[in-house]
Amino acid sequence: MRKADVVGTIAEKTGIPKVDILVALETFFKEVKSSLIEGEPVYVRGFGSFILKKRAAKIGRNIKKNVAVDIPEHFIPAFKPAKEFSVAVKESKHELKEHSPSDADL
User: Fold this and answer.
1) Which positions ≥6 away from 58 have C-beta within 8 Å?
2) What confidence category does residue 92 fall into, taking pLDDT thresholds of 50, 70 and 90?
3) How far is CA 68 from CA 57, 64, 71, in A?
4) Separation of alpha carbons 78 and 5, rounded Å
5) Structural domain spans, the chain
6) Among the listed residues 44, 51, 40, 47, the one whose alpha carbon sits nearest the alpha carbon of residue 77
7) What's the pTM value of the predicted model, to 2 decimals?
8) CA atoms within 13 A on the CB side of 90
């Protein structure tokens, strides 16, 4: 399911125009990004948390030049689903759908 599919589904279920839903969704994404950039996690009760995970400093290797490269400590964004969300997915009886690349993914 892509963002356009989510927008279309919400529009059908609520009767709200797709443009308004798209604006709200984009604003939500923007707020999550800006909060994480500021170091503040975002908690959505019953859904999950958008958090920062700390990656320790390590030494990597540039294979082409065969040189050691220092990778400094850094943070990456992550999503941690709420317990009830995880339980609902675990208990669902479905097969994984294979993702086939489309023109939009390329």
Assistant:
1) 71
2) confident
3) 13, 11, 10
4) 23
5) 1-39, 41-94
6) 51
7) 0.74
8) 7
